[in-house]
Design a protein that fits this description.
The complex is a heterodimer of chains A (182) and B (238). By secondary structure, chain A is of the alpha/beta class. Chain A has 7 helices and 7 strands. Chain A has a single domain, classed as 3-Layer(aba) Sandwich (Rossmann fold), CATH 3.40.50.700. Helices cover 33% and strands 21% of the residues of chain A. Chain A is globular and about 55 Å long. The termini of chain A are far apart. In chain B, a hairpin with a 6-residue loop joins strand 3 and strand 4. By secondary structure, chain B is α+β, with helices and mostly antiparallel strands. The chains are: A alpha/beta (182), B alpha+beta (238). Bound molecules: iron/sulfur cluster (3 copies) and FE2/S2 (inorganic) cluster. One iron/sulfur cluster (SF4) binds next to helix 4 and helix 5 of chain B.
Chain lengths: 182, 238
């Protein structure tokens, strides 16, 4: 059997879900035998999200133009997409800025009102991605195949979700073992 | 006192007249999920989690405010009820601002527990991200309206048990919120005895003891030792 083409992406999140993934420790060696890591901020150095990905874990909410562009590409090129962690599932902490109603008030608050020295708005078109007005969970933007909430999901829970996927089965996300917010 | 006989999930039950379906179910060892219900205070049927199906009645009724009657045939856990309960929880999450990761009640919250019980893994309803405030004017306690589910347990416990009636529900529709006094800062309400009953009654992280927020956490310096010595002592798990 061909190896499963596995990817992870990191959008608007703190990377904690990826750190928790790395907490799988020696099980990562078993995992590496079963999958080809074709794209991942912690598992490969490939810059362009490839075609024909079997399984992708998505950490983070959709907060800026780059997140949006990448998630659309990821959805198009991935068979089974997992919303990985609370930021992906609920928009979580990154979405707390939604209460300020729009990108402009957020930037003004952070860079002008709270700017200590030489307050100025960041503006480098093409280099610094523009903030979206509203931070949204992944499934409000694209269709998601499975949800693994938690901030972050613990390593054993990530493993329990991955193991069935490696056998081509969909894990049953039920009960305290598999579901946790926060 | 007359006794009523009825069936809940196929189980024959006899209970005194005037009892609620929730009480009858509890007596029969059948769990019906609840959120706004709190033993010892009046039931008001606010959250609708306890909805049940009754044969011959074509709408769902809340078990906490429905009295038993002779010959009732009640179902408490049909696929339809499970689906509605899950939707209610999803709506509660989408309606307020629940950022569990930074909440005082994380891991100790009835709303979280219900989400897990109902098998909620995400909200199918778009999040509203309402603008809500936090009141920390009281010496000992605070309220974060972002996490309030309007169960009114605080309102009832303060009125019925403490007898102070500090809380009420103000405004209408999506703007409804619990208020203290005449919608004034909690710390300025003379009627409050600081008994803490509302703090105990609140099912979520909305009402909290000051000093318990994430930002006010006390550091435990002895924990630093672990990080330094874990490798040496081969403590791979905590
Ligand atoms: S009140 Fe409960 S559900 Fe809401 S943020 Fe706090 S822990 Fe989460
Ligand atoms: S502390 Fe006691 S008196 Fe004050 S609002 Fe809460 S229940 Fe009422
Ligand atoms: S503050 Fe707590 S007890 Fe009062 S209505 Fe809100 S959730 Fe219920
Ligand atoms: S517990 Fe019955 S409606 Fe809330």
């Amino acid at each position: 059997m061909d190896k499963i083409r596995f990817a992870t992406v990191w959008l608007a999140g703190c990377s904690g879900c990826h750190m928790s993934f790395l907490d799988l420790d020696e099980w990562l060696i078993d995992l590496a035998e079963k999958v080809d890591v074709v794209y991942s901020p912690v598992g490969s150095d490939i810059k362009e999200y490839p075609e024909d990905v079997d399984v992708c874990f998505v950490e983070g909410a959709i907060a800026n133009e780059e997140n949006l562009e990448l998630i659309l590409k990821v959805r198009e090129r991935t068979k089974f997409l997992v919303s990985f962690g609370d930021c992906a599932v609920t928009a979580n902490v990154p979405a707390m800025r939604n209460m300020l109603k729009g990108a402009d008030p957020v930037l003004r608050r952070c860079y002008l009102e709270l700017g200590d020295t030489t307050p100025q708005l960041p503006n480098f078109p093409g280099i610094v991605p523009e903030l979206l007005d509203k931070v949204r969970p992944v499934h409000e933007v694209i269709q998601v195949d499975m949800f693994l909430p938690g901030c972050p999901p613990s390593a054993p829970r990530i493993q329990a979700a991955l193991e069935p996927l490696l056998r081509g089965e969909k894990p049953v996300m039920e009960g305290r073992e598999m579901l946790k917010f926060g | 006192m007359s006794v009523k006989t009825l069936k809940i999930d196929g189980k024959e039950i006899a209970i005194e007249e005037g009892a609620t379906l929730l009480q009858a179910a509890k007596e029969a060892g059948i769990r019906i999920p609840t959120l706004c219900h709190l033993d010892g205070i009046t039931d008001i049927g606010a959250c609708r989690l306890c909805l049940v199906e009754i044969a011959g009645i074509n709408r769902l009724l809340p078990a906490c405010v429905t009295e038993v009657s002779e010959g009732m045939d009640v179902q408490t856990n049909t696929p339809k009820l499970k689906e509605y309960r899950k939707m209610i929880i999803e709506m509660l999450f989408a309606e307020g601002n629940h950022v569990c990761a930074v909440c005082v009640a994380n891991g100790n919250c009835e709303l979280q527990d219900l989400a897990i019980e109902m098998g909620m893994d995400h909200s199918r309803f778009p999040y509203r991200f309402p603008e809500r405030d936090v009141d920390v004017s009281h010496d000992e306690f605070g309220i974060d309206h972002n996490r309030c589910v309007l169960c009114t347990r605080c309102v009832r416990v303060c009125d019925e048990i403490e007898g102070a009636h500090v809380w009420d529900v103000g405004f209408r529709g999506a703007a409804a919120k619990v208020i203290t006094g005449l919608n004034q800062p909690w710390g300025t309400v003379d009627a409050c005895t600081s008994c803490g009953k509302c703090v105990e009654a609140c099912p979520t992280g909305a009402i909290f003891r000051k000093g318990a927020t994430v930002g006010e956490m006390d550091r435990d310096r002895s924990k630093l030792d672990f990080i330094v010595t874990a490798r040496e002592l081969k403590q791979w798990t905590r």
